[in-house]
Write a structure and sequence with these properties.
The complex is a heterodimer.
Chain A: H1 2-23, H2 29-47, H3 49-58, H4 65-105
Helix pairs in contact in A: 1-2
Chain B: E1 6-12, H1 19-26, E2 32-38, H2 44-50, E3 54-58, H3 64-77, E4 82-85, H4 97-105, E5 111-115, H5 126-144, E6 156-159, H6 160-163, H7 175-185, E7 190-194, H8 206-222
Parallel strand pairs in B: 1-2, 1-4, 2-3, 5-7
Antiparallel strand pairs in B: 4-6, 5-6
The chains are: A mainly alpha, B alpha/beta.
């Protein structure tokens, strides 16, 4: 119970930080909504951790709810890293295009 | 053909020690020479400019593939008829450019690759000869169904009319495999000729090879 309250407090803190970042226009509306949905889902998972335990047992998994959440988060992190890698690659391509245009435009015989 | 219609593209990154000698050796042939200084922090661009060749400058380092493509576009805009890719570190010989270009002039090929494994003997470090190159050849075969003797040849020449088909998208070292794959993909007439490679230093390390592989995979993923 105590751990769940701490987890919920941490989530509330992170939600507030995200909202502030949005107010400072550091993140867009879509990203704000993404994080709101993400953290609210996380808080549900924290609140209903016992039910998740029971569900996992009924499905035949030996892992407890908290382990299961960890697995899910690692999968999510891998996915985000992959997305980031692609995004960085696209930025690199844009940078190359700009650098090339600049080189060709500023060429003097 | 007038040699000034043959454009030698030299990508250079921090090559102040070698670029002068390379340009001196190219001078007697009357080719059009363009150095693409890829964001060097040394005097590469200044030395190249002193030699009276065309110098294009990347403000930031973008990699050899990116520099070559900048050179290609410059050559095309300057009405080149043949484009030659050449190295700035002095590992290729200026006198061999003609034999690489010859099949293009004779109408036998659209693109010619210099190969250090045909005829002329280059002193190839054993690790490269027996480990890295066989692996690179295998990857080229598996990924692109390409079977040339020199998988990472940086000495190549092609007709300007083929340049559009060969537009380089890989900024780093993966462009070698990319050019091979595009030449095959567009059914260009391909020829290999023997060249000499002087090993001034170890080029691609084993880690570099893996980096190339990663670049190729990523470029496959994000290509439309």
């Amino acid at each position: 119970m105590f751990q769940q309250i701490i987890a919920l407090l941490v989530i509330a803190f992170l939600l507030e930080r995200t909202y502030r970042q949005h107010q400072k226009k550091l993140i867009g509306k879509n990203e704000l909504w993404f994080w709101i949905v993400f953290w609210i889902s996380a808080s549900f998972a924290v609140i209903f951790i016992k039910q998740i335990d029971a569900l996992l047992r009924s499905l035949g998994f030996s892992a407890t709810g908290i382990n299961f959440l960890l697995y899910i988060s690692i999968v999510a992190i891998f996915y985000f890293i992959f997305r980031l890698r692609l995004r960085v690659e696209k930025l690199e391509k844009s940078l190359t295009r700009l650098t090339r245009e600049d080189a060709l435009k500023n060429f003097k015989k | 053909m007038d040699n000034s219609k043959i454009f030698i593209i030299i990508p250079a990154y921090n090559e102040e020690k070698n670029i002068g000698a390379v340009l001196d050796k190219l001078k007697p042939y009357g080719y059009s020479v363009a150095v693409v200084d890829d964001g060097s922090s040394d005097r590469t661009a200044a030395i190249a400019a002193l030699h009276g060749v065309d110098v294009l400058r990347h403000r930031v380092n973008r990699g050899q593939g990116a520099a070559l493509e900048t050179g290609n576009q410059y050559a095309l805009a300057s009405n080149a008829e043949i484009i030659v890719h050449f190295d700035a570190d002095g590992q290729f010989l200026a006198e061999e450019i003609f034999s690489v270009v010859e099949p293009l002039l004779d109408g036998q090929a659209d693109i010619v690759f210099g190969s250090r494994f045909l005829g002329i003997r280059s002193k190839i470090p054993a690790v490269k000869k027996y480990l890295i190159f066989p692996l690179a050849r295998l990857i080229n075969r598996l990924f692109f169904d390409v079977g040339l003797t020199d998988p990472q040849s940086g000495f190549r020449a092609f007709l300007a009319s083929a340049a559009q088909d060969l537009a380089i998208e890989n900024d780093g070292m993966a462009h070698c495999s990319e050019i091979l794959a595009k030449a095959y993909g567009h059914s260009l007439r391909i020829k290999e000729v023997p060249i000499t490679v002087l090993y001034t230093r170890f080029g691609q390390s084993f880690g570099g090879g893996f980096r190339i592989l990663a670049d190729l995979l990523i470029s496959k993923l994000i290509s439309k």
